[in-house]
Structure formats: C-alpha cells, structure tokens
Amino acid sequence: MINLDDNEIKNLISIDTFNDTSLFAVSVVELPKYEVLYVNQAMKNIMSDMTAHNCWEAIHGQEAPCMWCKAPMLLANLKQNIHHSQSTMDNAYAVYEHFNEVANKWYQVQEKVITLEDSRDVLISFALDISLQKDAQSKLIDTHVKLTKQTKALEEAQKKLKEQANRDPLTNMHNRRYFSEISEKIISITKRSKDPLSLIMIDIDNFKKINDTYGHNVGDEVIKLLANELASTIRQSDVAARFGGEEFAIILPNTDATNAFIFADKLRENIENISYKDKKDTIKFTVSIGVDEFNHENDNNVSASLNRADKALYEAKTTGKNKVLIFKH
C-alpha cells in the first residue's frame, strides 16, 4: 500500500481523521485504478488485506469491483460539472449505509470524488460504525412488529368475543340482543325512505311434548333443524334470530304484510316437511307464525311491531297451530 505523503490530499481531510482514535474509518482511493493511497487506523482495523492494492480487495475482501461502488457515478458527475464549468466543490456527496462483511458491522459511508492539481481523481470515503444504532433500530422494528401482531390478535379476539356475544350458542344464529340492535338501525333507514317493513314471530308447536317424549337432546336437534331452515330461506337483507327456547324472529325489509305472509306460509310448509330421525322414531314438527307490518306513523321502535306479531302468533297457537296469522290493526 502506498503511504500518503501528498500534502494536497492531507489538506482535503480534517487533521483529526489521522488520529488513531478517530471514529471515522477514512480511505483515499485513486481512480480509475482503484488503488488505495491512504487508510487511517480505524479503516485498518476493518480491512480484509492491508497488503492488497485495489480497494475492493484490500478493504472489502472482494475479488472484483464492488457492485455497490458509488465511484463511477461520482466521477461521472464530476466530469459533467467540469464540462458545464461548475465548481468541483458543488459536487454532492454520496451518502449510504453499507454492511461490511469483513468487520461484520454496519457503516454509514460518505464519499466524494475530487480532482487533484496533478489531474488525478481520488475517492475520499468516511465510514462511521452505526452497528449499535442499526441493532437498536432492528429491535425497535421487531418490537413494533410484535406489538402490531399482538394488537391485531387482540382486536381479532375482541371481534370474535363480540360476535360470540351476538350469537346463540346452540344454533349459531343471531340472538335477541343483536336482533334488537340491528332492527333499530334498519327501522331508522326505512322510516326515512318510507319503504315497507315487516316482522314475524315463530314458535315450535307442542315443543314441551317433544322434550318430554324424546328428551332435551332431541329437542335441541329440532331447534337446530328449524334454525337451518330459517338460515337457508331468508334473503341476504333479512335478519333472523333465536329469541330463546323455541321462539324465533325475522325482520323483513322492503316487505309489506301481504308478502311477509306469503314468505311465512312457505316457510311453515317447508318446516312441516322436515323430519328428524331418532334411534327408533321419525319426528316431525310444525310451527305457528305471527306477522305484523311496521307502522311508520305510529311506531317509534321495533318493540311495538314485535308485540303485535307476538299477539298474532298467540292467536295462531290458540286457533289450531301450524298456521300463519297477520295482526289485525
């Protein structure tokens, strides 16, 4: 390696960079030969081969010019500025981060190409060890990623818990609380649009007898069969819920009482044809259904319409069961 005794180059570098305790690893490389003219002690401490002449081999331990080398770009910029009669001091530094595999450390590198009075072009490089900062940054990113994942997992868990709180555990249908909340929102919309809206109440006929005769497990299976039929029958805009026991409710947007009756009676017929096979018996069941159309002028919430549908349901029960009745206003 050539010893640096060129006063011009020395003047280009602050005197403290020659101190053995300098934090900056400094190198001066002659272009286009890429021959190392000078390195300070900090650079020597991370060099691959101090006996080599070319910078890629001496400093980085490469067998050919480094792919990340900024010297060609800086040299081209320098020549372009000279061609346009600009001062060489206007050339921008190249600043970048680089991982030195020899030293196993991260460095922030600042470089510039300068033309000496004897017309030689030299690349001056200052490298500052930023490994601690990069490690801290990496840990911070890892922590952020972990916190993001934990937050997302917590949000998903909360969402799942909220969904579970709105579901009936036996049938996985919406429960009464969710039905009440969503119905008020639907009604708020329909009151503005004045579109028709109906509610129906459904109850399994003679359900106590089914439980007493075949047991509660069979009763649960009957409830699930009804729930599956409701889920497969309602439209995407409809909302069905289990109110508790053998009682269910459905809200039907954009549906008047007449069409709600047609829907409900078809549902009743479908349920009448459903059967559950126990070990020995084939169990069939029916439902009674009450229908009411929401009154935009007098009803302020879903409760009044639900009560009327429930009264129509009670009348269907007491007048023969397995039928659909519309509440008579």
How would you describe what is shown here?
The protein is an alpha+beta fold and 329 residues long. The chain contains 10 helices and 13 strands. Strands 6-8-9-7-12-13 form a 6-stranded mixed beta sheet, sandwiched between helices. β3 and β4 form a beta hairpin. The protein starts with 6 loop residues before the first helix and ends with a strand.
Largest sheet: 6 strands, mixed
Strand content: 15-25%
Helix percent reads: 40-55%
Mean pLDDT: 86
Radius of gyration: 41 Å
Total of helices: 10
The rounded distance between the terminal residues' Cα atoms is 106 Å
For the largest sheet, list the strands in their spatial order: 6-8-9-7-12-13
**Strand and helix order:** HEEHHHEEEHEHEHHEEHEEEHE
Helix-and-strand structural type: alpha+beta
Shape: rod-shaped
Q: Which regions contain 5 or more consecutive residues with pLDDT less than 50? A: 1-5
> How many strand segments?
13
Helix-strand blueprint:
Elements lengths: L6 H6 L11 E8 L3 E5 L1 H4 L10 H4 L12 H13 L10 E7 L4 E11 L5 E9 L1 H35 L8 E2 H18 L3 E8 L2 H8 L1 H18 L5 E6 L2 E7 L3 H16 L2 E3 L4 E3 L2 E7 L8 H17 L5 E3 L3
Parallel strand pairs: 6-8, 12-13
Antiparallel strand pairs: 1-2, 1-5, 3-4, 4-5, 7-9, 7-12, 8-9, 10-11
What's the short version?
It contains ten helices and 13 strands. It has 329 residues and is an alpha+beta fold.
List keywords for this structure.
329 residues, 5-stranded antiparallel beta sheet
